[in-house]
Specification:
The protein is α+β, with helices and mostly antiparallel strands. The chain has four helices and seven strands.
Length: 111
C-alpha cells in the first residue's frame, strides 16, 4: 500500500493543471498538489482537509470561495478568481498554494 502512494505521488508531480481528469480523485488521507487543487477549484469542487491538526473547508458559495474552520470564516470570499484565491488566501499566515505545494495537507473529502 505504501508503494502505491509513492507511485501516485511521483505520477502526480508530472501532471499539469489541465491534464487531470475525473479519475484523478484522491482517497481520504491523501494529499494533492497546488496544481491539482486548482484543477478541482476550476471544476467548482469543495475540499475538506486537515492542516496542522485542524480541519479546514474550502467552500464554493454564491459569494465565492472562502476557507472555513468549523463555523469560522477565515478568509474573504473570492468570486470565480480561483488563482487569486489560492495564491493570496492564507491559513495561519501561509498561502493556500504554499500549504498544498508543500504537501502539508491531508485530504478528508472532495465534493
Amino acid at each position: 500500500m505504501r508503494s502505491l502512494g509513492l507511485r501516485y505521488k511521483k505520477w502526480l508531480k508530472k501532471k499539469k493543471v489541465d491534464e487531470f481528469d475525473d479519475s484523478d480523485d484522491v482517497p481520504a488521507g491523501g494529499t494533492i498538489s497546488d496544481e491539482h487543487l486548482l484543477y478541482y477549484l476550476k471544476q467548482g469542487r469543495e475540499i475538506e482537509f486537515m492542516y496542522n491538526k485542524t480541519g479546514y473547508f474550502i467552500c464554493h458559495a454564491l459569494e465565492g470561495r472562502a476557507v472555513w474552520s468549523g463555523t469560522v470564516k477565515l478568509t474573504n470570499y473570492y468570486d470565480d478568481r480561483n488563482e487569486e484565491f489560492v495564491y493570496t488566501a492564507t491559513i495561519e499566515g501561509v498561502t493556500v498554494a504554499e500549504i498544498f505545494k508543500n504537501k502539508q495537507t491531508e485530504i478528508t473529502t472532495i465534493f
